[in-house]
Design brief:
The protein is mostly helical. It has one domain: hpI Integrase, Chain A, CATH 1.10.443. 43% of the residues lie in helices and 6% in strands. The protein is built from nine helices and five strands; from the N terminus they run H-H-H-E-E-E-H-H-E-E-H-H-H-H. It has a three-stranded antiparallel sheet with strand order 1-2-3. Strands 4-5 form a two-stranded antiparallel ribbon. Strand 4 and strand 5 form a beta hairpin. The relative contact order is 0.16.
C-alpha cells in the first residue's frame, strides 16, 4: 500500500491595510510615535529595526537608511522617504538635546552592538552612534549595571499604536504596516526580488506570500459575479 505523506503546512496569509486605513491610523498618532509608524509603512522596517536606528544610519544625501541589525545578522539598505526627511531631521534635533545632556552629566554612551563596545570604546559616547529614538530618561542596563540612555521601548510604541487603532476601529498591529509596505510595492509593479531585499526576507518564498494577497484582493482575479449585469 502506498504510504500517504503528511500534509504540508501552509503559511498564513498576512493581514494588510488599505492606504485609507493607514492614513486613518497615522492621523491618530503624533510626535515620534507617528514618525515610527510612518517609517514602518514607508520603509518596511520592523519595530525593533526602527527603534535601534543610530544617527549614522540616516543618509539624507543619498536618501538611504541603513538597517544594520536584522534577523540573521544581515544588514540592508532601504529608502529614506522624502516626505519624512524634515520630520527625521527634527527628531535628530530632539535626540541631540538628550545626547548633550548625557555628555554634560558624564553619562555619555549608549549600548553598542555585538563586540564593538570593546573594539571601538570611543564610539559609544559619540553623537553618530546615538539613538534616533532615545528614551526621555536614563535607566540602568540590567546586564551591565551601567546607567545610560536606551532607545524607546517597543512596548511604549505598541501601547500607543493599540489605542490609535481602537479609536480607528481597525483590528491590527504595527507589524501589519510592514506587510502593507511590501504589498503596496508589488501592487505598484516592483519586482519580487527588490521587495525581498527591502523587506529583509532571507527567502523569496516569504515575499511570495504577498503575491497571494494581491491575487485574492482587487488587484488579482476578478470574481465572476462582478461581471453579471445588475439585477
Amino acid at each position: 500500500m502506498k504510504e500517504i505523506g503528511r500534509p504540508r503546512g501552509h503559511r498564513r496569509l498576512p493581514v494588510v491595510l488599505s492606504r485609507a486605513e493607514v492614513s486613518r491610523i497615522l492621523a491618530l498618532l503624533d510626535g515620534e510615535h507617528r514618525l515610527l509608524a510612518q517609517l514602518l509603512y514607508g520603509t518596511g522596517m520592523r519595530i525593533s529595526e526602527a527603534l535601534q536606528l543610530r544617527v549614522k544610519d540616516l543618509d539624507f544625501e543619498h536618501s538611504t537608511i541603513v538597517v544594520r541589525e536584522v534577523k540573521g545578522g544581515r544588514g540592508r539598505a532601504v529608502m529614506l522617504p522624502q516626505r519624512l526627511a524634515p520630520d527625521l531631521r527634527e527628531q535628530l534635533a530632539r535626540a541631540r538635546v538628550f545626547w548633550e545632556a548625557d555628555q554634560a552629566a558624564g553619562r555619555g554612551g549608549v549600548e553598542m552592538p555585538d563586540a564593538l563596545e570593546r573594539k571601538l570604546p570611543r564610539a559609544g559616547p559619540s553623537w553618530t552612534w546615538f539613538w534616533v529614538f532615545p528614551q526621555s530618561a536614563r535607566s540602568t542596563d540590567p546586564r551591565s549595571g551601567v546607567i545610560r540612555r536606551h532607545h524607546l521601548y517597543d512596548q511604549t510604541f505598541q501601547r500607543t499604536f493599540k489605542r490609535a487603532v481602537e479609536v480607528a476601529g481597525i483590528n491590527t498591529t504595527p507589524r501589519t504596516l510592514s506587510h502593507s509596505f511590501a504589498t503596496d510595492l508589488l501592487r505598484s509593479g516592483y519586482d519580487i526580488r527588490t521587495v525581498q531585499e527591502l523587506s529583509g526576507h532571507a527567502d523569496v518564498s516569504t515575499t511570495m506570500i504577498y503575491t497571494h494577497v494581491l491575487k485574492i484582493g482587487g488587484s488579482g482575479v476578478r470574481s465572476p459575479i462582478d461581471a453579471l449585469p445588475e439585477i
